[in-house]
Amino acid sequence: MFAHLFNQPKAKGSHLKLTTLIFTGFVIPSAFAWQAEKIASGFTLPWAIAYVDEQTLLVTEREGIIKRLDLTTGKQTPLAEINVVAKGQGGLLDIAKSPFTKGTYYFTYSKNQQGQSATTLAMARYQDGKFSQWQDLLVTDSRSNTTRHFGSRITFDQSSVYFTLGDRGERENGQNTQTHAGSILRLNPDGSIPKTNPFINNPKVRDEIYSYGHRNPQGIWYDSQTKQLWSIEHGPRGGDEINLIQAGANYGWPITSHGQEYWGPFDVGEAKEKPGIESPVKVYVPSIAPGSLVLYRGDKFPELNGKLIAGALKLMHLNVITLNEQNQAIDEQRLLENLNERIRDLEITPAGDILFATDNGKIYRLIR
Questions:
Q1: pLDDT in tens, 165-204
Q2: DSSP string spanning 79-102?
């Protein structure tokens, strides 16, 4: 414990969603729809999952507990308890396996800073079923009295760590580049600042910022095949966005938005789009409330290859987006709508399996 801190039968407890296949005028019910196979249950607000090996998954619970899940037996084992500010949307958040150093995992969590909370990036070693060498890499300048909009997902390119920060419930942070809030940050694996960051040595912008103008991005994914960085973020009432992230770009919040005010039927911001601001690839109205994002690359589900997949919290489904060669969203599918689960996090295994965690404390595997 840290001191500072398809062809398978319907699984029990899962829900089958019927689809139809149309062949030359005949409508045929299909029993080969996407299904959710339950692996385990009983977790308390699992915010993130990370693959270790074929038998092992690591799970973060928002109250600050890291657990090991045996994927074969479903057995849960508490490994560590981190001292976090577990209030509102804050707590122990993401976990991601390092592609740089064997046995290293990165975490984000809300850390107490003089009675307020700040999104923090940390790393630790995992070996022989134990964590050690916990190290905070960046306690971001994002502390706030609010308990909203922490972000906070992690992804990696060939040499860097990216993680997302929400505006912390203070809209002006989206355009305030003197704070880390409302931004996507990029660091070296050891927490230092890459010399190639877009605003390096710009006194008007924090060196760690890679892009800004974000409201609450809770999904980020780097696709190594195309070398593109994708994110998905919560809009206000309507206006969730999928964005293709460019170095140094402004994504508009709160100047531009496709959402409306919570207190009335009035648009948020000055416009939906404006010159000099990156427009989203896709907008969701009404909101699906995205909790995670992956881009699937694998042979197990060839029909999903190259597609973005987001977990939806409010509308409770897996949201699948097809992109064309111009990175335009040309099709949307909604899988597992009858599961009635707020889907929080997604993980793709090396074998191409898709695992996901829900707010009800369950871990599922997507099957066909």
A1: 999 999 999 999 999 999 999 999 999 999 999 999 999 9
A2: EEE-----STT-SEEEEEE-SSST
Q: Which residues are catalytic?
A: 149
Q: How many angstroms separate the CA atoms of 156 and 287, rounded?
A: 27
* Contact between residue 123 and residue 135 where contact means Cβ atoms under 8 Å apart: yes
Position 93, amino acid: L
How far apart are the two ends of the chain, measured CA to CA in Å? 39
CA dist 281 → 44, 167, 316, 317, 344 (Å): 34, 21, 21, 20, 22
Q: pTM (2 decimals)?
A: 0.91
C-alpha closest to that of 261 among 241, 235, 240, 281: 235
Dist CA 199 CA 322 (whole Å) = 32
Q: Can you read off the two tokens belonging to residue 175?
A: 């355009």
Asked whether the beta carbons of 91 and 109 are under 8 A apart, the reply is: yes
